[in-house]
């Protein structure tokens, strides 16, 4: 599928433009591929897209993907609602990526 060749930021742009329903459609049709899924999840945490973050967490995305990168990105971008959501759902605040 050509989708996997898109840069994850461009893919996130597409999902944000078209909405959560497009993300759900792609997810039902194979977006569960771990590397793409984690990239979309991390980018959504960075951008503060709570709808996407909630959907991906509810559908089994590895909340600590890339050694805590999603949480770190949410913190770095002042996405406090995302930080709270990730921690409430079990994100590891003590991963090595969180160390200064």
UniProtKB/TrEMBL annotation:
ANK repeats: 66-98
SUPFAM superfamilies for this protein: Pseudo ankyrin repeat-like
Keyword entries, A-Z: ANK repeat
InterPro entries according to UniProt: Ankyrin_rpt, Ankyrin_rpt-contain_sf
UniProt name for this protein: Uncharacterized protein
């Amino acid at each position: 599928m050509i989708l996997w060749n898109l840069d994850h930021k461009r893919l996130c742009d597409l999902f944000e433009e078209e909405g959560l329903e497009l993300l759900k459609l792609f997810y039902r049709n194979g977006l569960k591929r771990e590397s793409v899924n984690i990239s979309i999840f991390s980018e959504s945490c960075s951008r503060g897209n709570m709808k996407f973050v909630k959907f991906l967490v509810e559908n089994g995305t590895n909340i600590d993907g890339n050694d805590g990168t999603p949480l770190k990105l949410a913190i770095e971008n002042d996405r406090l609602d995302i930080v709270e959501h990730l921690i409430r759902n079990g994100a590891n605040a003590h991963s090595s990526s969180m160390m200064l």
